[in-house]
Every structure is written in structure tokens, then in C-alpha cells.
Amino acid sequence: MSYAQHFDEMHFPDGQVRPHYGSLARWIESTPPERITRMREAANMLFHRVGITFAVYGEEAGAERLIPFDMLPHIIPGDEWRMLESGLRQRVKALNAFLHDVYHGRDILRAGRIPEDRVLRNKLYRPEMVDIDVPNGVYAHIAGIDLVRAGAGEYYVLEDNLRTPSGVSYMLENRKMMMRLMPELFAQQSVAPVEHYPDLLLDTLRSVAPAHVESPMVVVLTPGQFNSAYFEHAFLAQQMGIELVEGADLFVENDTVYARTTRGPRRVDVIYRRIDDDFLDPRAFRSDSVLGVPGLVDAYRAGRVTLCNAVGTGIADDKSIYPFVPDMIRFYLGEEPILKNVPTYQLRNREDLEYTLAHLGELVVKEVHGSGGYGMLIGPTSTEREREAYRVRVLDNPDNFIAQPTLSLSTCPIFVDQGIAPRHIDLRPFVLSGKEIVMCPGGLTRVALREGSLVVNSSQGGGTKDTWVLE
């Protein structure tokens, strides 16, 4: 797992093109550079017109960026995808079993497979969820599992996103753009479709409605237009043909949630919420929240509304719990994990802490509750000053950090001003769990646009690509 060596998605080590990239390589060779430049400009203009932007926190108020889009797809052969799909199903099934268990019998804690304090004292564990039964035992209805490829091409799960995973709108818009720009490439091979994702999502949300509800009303709950992923909230509501609502549009009466409409109150059965737990209900969590719905948790406890994802899912995607996921698969499913974890040092353990502090220049160190690429140290690209400042933070609260080897993520070619160059990527497939587990082939490929950078997050300047699974 050397930082210097990486797997090239398109080329063998001797420079030959891998078979599944053959059509793309021929297209690149036969397409005049001027045409490619015009296509790239057209893509940028169309994305601006559609309004696909991403708000960046920490910049001037209201600053929004277009997420850069690269036209060269990330291509995955069908047999490779089938292996990934099996591994993703297995992992999400185990994570949902873990969530049910820690809010009910706590068998895995009593068996000593995960330290009890790691769960019960974690700020993402929600005592309010204890003994609440959720439809079909599903807590994480929408999961975004980040996969990376390293070394000789082996896949690793980098992290599990189970709270409010974002990015699926870019997966759908990227595909639409590619079909518009490169129809001849789609005609030459069979690329698995993704445009049915909104239908799969709506079916999944309807399938977990409270018992005895015939035609459930489903809504998307957004914190509002100043949220970084607001475009996606509005896009998904529109694609599913359902209402996009804010907290003020809903109210609770007799433990039942209603939406205010021009035709009077209408009962809401399923809420696809894109608001964090803390802000969902000012009576149950943060009393200063103006984003949520007073009484929502009471309606939830009464089984009168389903929240997707469930309250309390954060405990399963916390980075301090991540090292135990392979054990969850063995414990709940009696199977060996199909997908590997990245080896992880838990800095609450003295030996791991000492090793990490002695090798800060080689490791990636992350906050256990962090996300979006914030609050992270990438040792090999850091300065001495950054490492020393991070050392102080780690020593102040070691429990708050994990460390991992610096995987050199696989590379995929992108268009740059000088032509074509390799850049590091990861892949976020989206796994939907309702009465059954379903997913679209592929997912969102994120790409680090700066040469040598390993940070693919859009909030940190990364871009996106279309992902093709060949059928």
C-alpha cells in the first residue's frame, strides 16, 4: 500500500489499454482536440444553466461553485461490478443489523465484539431510539459507501455514509450530459443505465411506510436553499414527483405529521430527511433549531411516520466504529467480508497512538466524527508545521482520531489544458434498503483534479465523472 505506486484504471503497467477501455481509447484517438474543447465548454455551459452548484462552507456567504465535470468516464467491467455489488449488499445488511441490535438487545456488545463504551458513550448514539421498531428493521435506507482501489487493484471501503449521503444528483446529471455529448460511444457498447434511480428511491421510500398505509405520502425535508446540497434536494423531489418541504411546512397533531397545502392539511407518511438528527425536532434535540418540526420524534416513536434515514444511524458510520464492520458481518451474517476495510489505527489505544505520532508524515489522520474531507491530515503532502499543529490536536483528545496508511488511490485519465493526464479517484455507489436491497450499477466517481492530490471531496476542490458499468 505504497503512496508512490497506484493502479491505473485505463492502462496495464506496460502501457497497453485495458480491454474495457478500448472503445474510449479509440474515440480519444479519432476525435480532433478542437471538438473535445468545444464539448467541454458546452458541458460547463449546460451545467451552469441547469444550476448544478455546490455551496462551499467557510467561504463568503452564499458562495457557490460548479462542481467540475470531466468527460472521460470511469469504466468498470460487469464481472467486477457484480463482485462489488455483492460486497455492498453484504456490508449494508450487516450495518442495518448492527443498528437494530444496538437500539434493542445489544448482543454484539454483550458478546464483547465491540467495546460497550465505544457505542453507548458516543455522541452519535441516540438513547431516544432505544426499543423503537422501524419498518423492516431498516435504519439506513440510503447508504453511500466510498470505495477506493489501491496497490495491484484491490478494492477497499474507505468509509460508510449512512446519515444523509449526497452526490446522487451528480451521478444522474453526469450520465445525462454524457449521452448528450457522446452518443456514439454508448452505441458501441452496452452501458448499464442509471436513470431509473429516482424510481428505485421512491419505491424504497414507499416500501417502508408505516403499517396499513395504502398510498403513502412521501416528502423530501430540506434545511433550505442555503444548505450545500440544496440543488440535490430539489432535484430528487422533482425527479420523484413529490413535495420538497422545509420544517415550517410541516406540523404534528395527535402524533401525526401533516403538510400544509393549498387544499388544507395532508398527512405525511414517509420523510426523506436531509437534516441532521440534532436539528430535526426542537423538543427532542436542539431546542434552538428552527429547521425541524416540533413533535416529530413523538410521531416517529408512535410509528405514525417513517424517517429515512432513521434517527441514530450516525453511530454506524462513525469512524471509530468503522474498524469493527468486518466483525459485524461475521457476527450477524456468519459470512466473511467480501470487501476489505483499510487497516486502521485507533488512537485511543496507546500503542496505536505512539505509532501514529512517530509516523505522522506517512499516515492519513482523521477526526472520528469528521466528513467532507475537513479536519484531516494527509501526512505525505503535509508540511512540518501542519504535522506539529495536528500532533497537538491529537494529544489533546486521542479518542477523537483514527489513522490509516496513505493509500495511493487508483488513477483515471482526465482532460487537462495540456491534453490528458491521470488523476486519483474514488467511487461512491448508492445502496437502497427497503423491503429489499437495490442499487444502480456504478455510482458517483469523484476525482482529485490537482496533480498528486488524494482529496476527491467536492468541498475540497474535487470534480466528478460518469461511471460506466459494462453489461
Your description of this structure?
With 471 residues, the protein is α+β, with helices and mostly antiparallel strands. 31% of the residues lie in helices and 22% in strands. The chain has 14 helices and 23 strands. The strands form 6 sheets. Strands 3-23-22-19-18 form a 5-stranded mixed sheet. Strand 9 and strand 10 form a beta hairpin. Helix 3 packs across helix 12 (325-333). The longest helix has 25 residues, at 78-102. 42% of the residues are buried.
Largest sheet: 5 strands, mixed
Radius of gyration: 22 Å
According to DSSP, the number of beta strands is 23
Strand order of the largest sheet: 3-23-22-19-18
Q: What general outline do the C-alpha atoms trace?
A: globular
Runs in which pLDDT lies below 50 for 5 or more consecutive residues are: 56-62
Structural class: alpha+beta
Rounded mean pLDDT score: 92
What is the secondary structure topology, with strand pairs?
Elements (H helix, E strand, L loop, with lengths): L21 H9 L2 H18 L2 E3 L8 E3 L2 E8 L1 H25 L4 H4 L5 H5 L21 E9 L3 E8 L6 H14 L1 H6 L8 H11 L10 E4 L8 H11 L2 E3 L4 E4 L2 E4 L6 E2 L2 E4 L22 H6 L4 E3 L5 H4 L7 H9 L6 E2 L3 E2 L3 H9 L4 E5 L9 E2 L5 H13 L4 E5 L5 E6 L2 E10 L1 E4 L3 E3 L4 E4 L15 E7 L2
Jot down its keywords:
14 helices; globular; single chain; 5-stranded mixed beta sheet; 23 strands; 471 residues; 31% helix; alpha+beta
Summarize the structure.
This protein has a 5-stranded mixed sheet. Strands 13-5-4-20-21 form a 5-stranded mixed sheet. A 4-stranded parallel sheet has the order 7-6-11-12, with helices on one face. It is built from 14 helices and 23 strands.
